[in-house]
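Homework-ish question, so no full write-ups if that breaks the rules, but can someone show me the predicted structure for this set?
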Amino acid sequence: MAAESLRGRRLWRSGRARRMATQAGFSVLLLIFLAYMVERASHLDLDIGFMDAPAGFQISHTFVFGFDSGESRLAAYFVAVTNTIRLVVVGILLATVIGVLAGVARLSDNWLVSRIATVYVEVVRNTPLLVQIIFWYTAVFLKLPRIEAERSLFDVAFLSNRALALPWPEPRGDFFTAWVIVLALALVPGYFVRRIRARREAETGQTMRPNLYSLGVVLGIAAIGFLVLGLPVGIDTPTIVSEEFTKGYVGGLSVTPEFAALLIALVMYTGSFIAEIVRGSIQALPRGQTEAAMAVGLTGYQRITLVILPQALRSMIPSLTNEYLNLTKNSSLAAAIAYADLFQISEIIINKAGHAVVMFIIVIITYQVMSFTISAFMAFINRRVQLVGA
Amino acid sequence: MTSQQTQPAQGQTQRTGRDMIVVEGVSKWFDDFQALRDVTTTMQEQEVVVVFGPSGSGKSTFIRTLNRLEQHDAGRILIDGIELTDDLANLEAIRSEVGMVFQQFNLFPHLTVQRNITLAPQKVRHLPQAEAEELAMQLLERVGIPEQADKFPAQLSGGQQQRVAIARALAMQPKIMLFDEPTSALDPEMIKEVLDVMRELAESGMTMIVVTHEMGFAREVADRFLFFDDGQIVEEGTPEHFFTDPQEDRTKLFLSQIL
Amino acid sequence: MQAQLSSLSGPLLARRWVQKNLFSNRWNSVLTVITLTLFAVIAYNLLRFVLVSAEWESVDVNRRLLFLATYPSAEEWRLWPPLWLFSGVAGLAYALWSRVSRREIVILGASAAFMFLLLAEGSNGALVATGTLIAVGAYAGGRRLRETRYDTTARRVAIGGGVAVLPLALILLNAGDGVRTTVWGGVMLNLTLATVGIGFGFPLGVMLALGRASSLPVVRLACAGYIEFVRAGPLILWLAMARFVLPDFLPTVGGLDEVDLVVRAMMVMAGFSGAYIAEVVRGGLQTIPRGQREAADAMGLNAFQTTWYIVLPQALRSVIPALVNRFVSLWKDTSLVVVLGFVDLLGAARAISAQPDFVGRQAAALLFAALVFWTVAFTMSRLSLRIERHLGVGER
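A: Not a homework solution, just the prediction itself:
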């Protein structure tokens, strides 16, 4: 009896035994919790078959793929995913441009420029994105004139609360593919011109402008091919068509007010965060870099593009990736103004068919796949940049 | 060299002869690398032992196993009769009997000097705050910086920080003090102030194990030297033995490099 | 140079300044002209909107809607004590921890008070004014106590008061007959959601971060799994879950299965911000050198004591700006509850456009809502920049 209690105490006093006991206890609690969740879930219908049923609703925004209410819910979800991807890809590109410009502008020695950039960042960053989306949508885009009283620019671009319609290039004739091939082939001489001139510049020290010349060669060949092949690309201008009940635009690129509002809000919002990242990483560079660049006589523009940004970019990539992932997740706010992104469509499906758990699992997986793709792409860029720097 | 006025090897005359630390066949691996190879030695109460050797020789690992900052994989370590095992109660007893001073001081930067010293006595020994503060002031007096009690570590010089670290270790009223290269991170002009405190401590009869390359100080204070290389005790003996008649080639080579 | 400049007369000085800061070279001049044009266009339109076309009347007559929405007037007394406590704590905390210049504090304090005065009507104005006075008084008091021997006590009072705000509010709201959460709304709802999100999300986040840094594999995996799972989806998705899915998973005991949507939204807010706060805290934990733990171990502190007295204080202090950024995000995110059909500040602003008098005219109300969100968020982020990160003393 005494020996037993002693052994019991020994065991309790042993560090390893305590760790094991803690883990075991924690595991038991965790298992109970998971078992409870599974038990609860088992009452639900987890069959995925409902996605095959006809959707029974229209999708107001489609982009590459059309959609008809007779198609399956899965097809609807797929269209919604393409809508989200469109928003995210364009959004990331534009937000990066805005962010880098604003970040550099905040550090400009031009007082006005840096002040305006600061105001932009501080105002936009500290206001909820959803408020901004709704503001752009209801107070700007829906306030545009109705389609009958639209504002037009020389009758080729139109602005109304129905859509933003812009002229857009469009393949014409039979030689479009041929021209694309010519364009691709033009890159070869372009590359050699650049290499030769760059080498001569390095050897002789004369300014040979390798980038400018190589661009000239490529554009020249492309222009000749364009003429020879009989203008394979034309500009398609939008026109208004009136049908019995609806009016709309045909041709060109037409962007819905929902998409435009979302894109602007997402771009401005994410751009303000990117601006802070850009500013932070530039300021984190040793002062010696700017001073050295000044000392060798580089101009302000050269200092930024040749010395500062390439270095800052390297330290920026992880935070930049984070902002891209945030933009991706934030794109789900599209649902608030009924842009048919994947979240809005999944909510519609849930309202029509139930199966919330399954639907949400699909949504989470979709976001996770998108996040993973972005992270992987950024990791690839990161490796490239680090290699060049090493 | 610093002054040789004090009696050399003073500890020897007062020693009680009780075994304070017994190390038997201790080995330690870091993955594939064997940091300690079958180390066996005994240290008596009030003894001052200086451990030295080339970097990577295992001397730091050795003294860190003595209060179980590193766990030994084989062999036995007895501190004042208590064996170091996985037993948490034993560990608690040993931790409060063995004080440690680190190369990098490891003071807590968010606490004042006084709070650095009173924290463990209050939380581990459950001393009332007033008593703990009284004790802290006594110890700061002893290490010569009572006026710094309310400052934060970052406001002190390296030498002052290390003296606070010694006071902090003493606050638990340990029977043994371990010093892991206490002066290596200090600027030369600050080394003496720390060594003076350690010398005073040795003279007061504290059992001390010191990893150091300050051979002048070591010769003056130590009862015994341990020379470590390749995870083993290569040679041990009195300071005089090392300075006049080292036996092993490795010892001779190393001493010729650092002296 | 400075002396030279100051010896010049006023107009000449201004000219110098303009030349140096706006037209230092050709490129800069072009830039100035372009920005000036852009600025003029935006400013013109904004001013025209604010002064001419915005219907501020829609905000004016709907102040109560924006402030409290459907919350019953008879129960308003329950709101003021926690708000006053919060004002006092805010003033004290500002005085003790931040290094905000006097100019800045006047601007921030005035705009915050202005915001509430705008929202409050009738007798509420006096109550808001009381809150403002408490804040100013606490600030003045804190200023005086700072770095005296009462400094630590004052800091403890501030922390204690801050911790007490949430329990006080919850007790008052539920005392007696209580106020059903379904009638909560307006800015009050946003404030409550944010406070609950921070109040429960912060401890949760700290625990998750410690769990993720634990040496026990099961704990580590479970915490990491939770954090990554929550971060995988957008908040709006988790809020939708609170509506569609959570009822199926809540236990049926103690009436938990029928908790209303507001409480479910609060649970989601806390759980969501917990995952993000955990990641911030984890960053702080990683900055603690190994030697700190070793020293604590060597002194005989146990694992809990080491974490509580040594690791956490340092880890949290090193991530204060990032933490406050999370709080700012959470504050902005409270606007997402409109997707659940709540009438929070944004919901109220939107609802105005449905009123017969203001059909389709919600721009003014939206702008006003944006201003309220912005003032609080900007104040918080400014504060985080000025907080003493390393207890100040060493680096002053």
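Now go work out the reasoning yourself. Hint: The radius of gyration of chain A is 29 Å.
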